[in-house]
Batch of 2 targets.
Target 1
Amino acid sequence: MKTSVFLLLTLLSLPLLGQFPDSSRLAIVDIYTSQPIIDRAKITADMCIRYAGPNKWTFSEGDCNNYEGKIGIEIRGSSSQFFDKKGYGFETREEDGSNRNVELVGMPKENDWVLNGPYSDKSLIRNALTYELGRSMGRWAPRTRFVELNINEVYQGVYVLMEKIKRDKNRVNIAKLDDTDTDPQDITGGYLLKIDKTTGGIATYSWQGEFGDIIQVEYPKEDAYLPAQAAYIANYMTAFEKTLRTMQFTNEDSLGYRHYIEPSSFIDFLIVNEVAKNVDGYRLSTWLYKDREGRGEDRLQMGPLWDFNLAFGNANYCTGGGPEGWVLNFNQICPRDGWVINYWWDRLLSDPQFQEELVERWFALREDEFSTQRVLARVDAMVAEIGPAAQRNFDRWEVLGEYVWPNSYIGNTYQQEINFLKDWLRDRLVWIDQNIENISFQVQGSFSYGASVGVYPNPFSDELTLSLQFNNEAPLLVEVRNIAGQRVFYSEIEISRATFSQWRWDGLDNQGNALPTGLYFLSLQQNDKIVASRKLIKN
């Protein structure tokens, strides 16, 4: 691949931002583009991947032996988009722009991929470690490979090349659904669902759950799904949630929740989120899927795992830094956070059988894949695999010894960051051993399902919509502050408890000026108390 004369002249004028390696024990990824990489709109670029194999030296001047060709690439992430080191999503493409399914660095063929750029996670391994733990439990989790990335011959550091969550025989292996599937049996699966922020806009189909969540359908996509399919999965989820509200929810027959979900998948999901003490756990980046009836396990499954960069002690809020306490109690610890953990978990943990199965699974794992020795050995293996590339990464991004949101610990060296992670893990595993038999979901106040807030689109360019429903009819104060804490907008809204109302904001401050691009914080207040809050991203 050759860059243009214009590009070469441009590069000569750039400051030295990091020396890309002549050789590496990792795969070397080179991306060339003649235009800026942006968010939510893939641009066409060229990519070359060189990879000699595990524990072998790869040379930057060698042939593009693993991949050579076109890609479509964009910036990905939500809060992480404000970091200097960006994450990217990309598609491998044919010359005509169509999908090109390929194996990358030993991972099965597909065309959708992610280049995760650890930045606030100075261990560089938190996501990769989590997914490996998930796979060790017998669950599918994204495969990962550490790589070194160059963009237009400027070194970008260590990245995690990983699979994207999608329906595929090698990824989430559920039935394919398209606009020819109308038979009542066929539309029973497969569906990929997500509980998450609405960054990038709400998915193909979504609805307000019984517990206030916006449940999004990620598959089938908009050009393939039918109203009958949308109605089926919404009705299925509603029936599951309504069952949790009944006195018979623990029954073994069709009156109980086990008729709708596979409890072992919820247990494994809980265990990983609690081992990691993931402050985003259960409430953001939470995936579920349901396969077609007759295809093996066809009840609702929790997972796959996704997005653990703020885990394993890497959060200085809501007790995320310490190895004690349950993530499940997030609602009580951080009552002002806008994204709360729904009450599925309260009801599941109210079932003695579910609790018994959880405890049994935990101690079985502790004898095997989750033994302290094996977990720490995984950390050591990943650090050894990255090797000298870690130093190159931190020469490029000088964050060691510096606070990067939301670090709870700041090490002066890479080894100190790894020592913190390992010490934290030792303490966390022991704490869970001592407390797992008394795990509970602590709820503030009464068991309530009435209050809900939805915000979309987010990020937004012009207009923003709030979907509102509250348990009382007190006026609601809407307040928006910028990253410096200055109030840029406020308004009062009348609330009608009987209806699910919407309120639209044109994105202007109280003087009628458009807000600059950036990060903002929305708070909703009733009776002088904050009842919900959200991060907003203005494009």
Note: Residues 1-17, 443-451 have pLDDT under 50 and may be disordered.
Target 2
Amino acid sequence: MPSQPDTIYAAFIEAVSQYAGRPFLRAPASATGGYSVGAIEYSYGSALQAVAELRLLYQNLGLGPGDRVALAFDSRLDVYLHLLALNAEGASIVPLNMAGSDAELLHIIRHSEARLMSGTGAHMSRLQLLAQEAGQVALFSVAGQGHGHSSAESDRGDTEVIAPKISPLRSSVPRISSKSIGSDSAAEAALLYTSGTTGTPKGCILSNDYFLTMGLEYTRLGGLCAIHAGDRLLTPLPPNHMNALSTSFMAMLLCGGCVIQLDRFHPASWWQTVRDEAATIIHYLGVMPAMLLQLPFDPTENFAGQVRFGFGAGSDPRHQEVFERRFGFPLVEAWAMTETGGAGMIVAHIEPRHLGQRCIGRPIDHVEVRLVDEHDGDVAPEQDGELLVRRRGDDPRKGFFSGYFRDEEATREGWRGGWWHTGDVVRQGADGSLFFVDRRKNVIRRSGENIAAVEVEAALLQLDAVGACAVTAVPDEIRGDEVFAFVVPAGKVADPAQLAQDLFAACMDRLTYFKVPGYIALVDTIPVTASQKISRAEVKKSALQWLASGRATDLRQFKKRVRS
């Protein structure tokens, strides 16, 4: 039998040999307005040509095994092409989220020890300043390389590279150990930084095996998530996150499918794009399903027979059944994190999916799970506990991330006892299904009672007057923590104080009294991350500011045990 590919590039070469003429990477015209006229599309064959040109460019710069390149291409297809080119050279990529602050980007550039920064001309001025501040890279412009292939006439010559002045690349920046980057399955392919919503981002070392495992496990799922050769996967999620970079990209590469990459989520034109691009799979996160349900009804919006499934996480449980009936395909909820990849994936791809109950499914065949208390002791059946995961067999870490770069202590702590500690609290039902409760760090401890922020949010979201919400802990001199809720009203508010009291009273009917918000603040928006998850760090910071200024409605005096 032929050997399995052991790098991303080797898997790509195998795909080219089978699917050279098929579409591989596509950006619709709606996603390229700022830099191209019309859509951009690469077949497997034309992508190989583009990758070969990029390889030559990087070779001429002296790049090779042991180097990292920071990429600033936003959600352009360039990210995938540069990944393939650098992987072929044994080098690693560090995707940058240019929506981040200068301080966040500077931390990543310095911490990752990147030797080059490659990006679009639109980011060049900012990258120049960051390069000067970082002190490890200088400028080397190669604008106008023109290595793009589009389905319409366009100017793609706006790619530039920031690199040390010394050529070949041998500046004072130390090379990464050859043991961590090379041309085998254990070699590093990407250094992906966590979102940093709860602190300084950590660099997750992702190997070739990580990427290949993610693609293989996704394509092997079956059930509602059966992947077909030639599928067309539409994603609005950015390639600086593992969902697009490893999940979408690798699954399509391995099945001869096409990644249709959007610049971002456009609710108003979403279904037209789904129709025009003949998408068979869509990826979603966060509030996307809720926003789509708010659109005016369109008699052509049912996509049964075209879209087989949506794949994502964090959809509002209240909306799942309504969404599926209206739009004609299932929303398959899944759980994973950058650290676990496909090796620790949990997916609700088979029935029963327990719609409306925050079900994330059951562990796939090779995944073992435990639910533990704060002392790593197993919890009783159907009780909440922190989710621990590992791979079955002799190598419990196979397919997981290789560790946090320059933070061995955090890696050891995460893997204590031979299990990866996810920090997520879940509950396991009688049929083995897992139900998400909350992040352990989002558990509010009030007077000795643990309160899951997401449970309070779920109660608020049941109320017609609530459009969106976020719950966090604020300090309380007597009880330790108190429950603080930000609420975006669903409509106009005549009397904010009265609305806050009405919401409080409604929560008292739905929750144990100590879980009800002691403070409620009405706001216009809830801060979210680039992947549309609630930015817990920003929510916490804002809550402390509202508390200090006395702007929130204080309802603590009404939080009393109901006597029978």
Note: The longest helix spans residues 44-60.
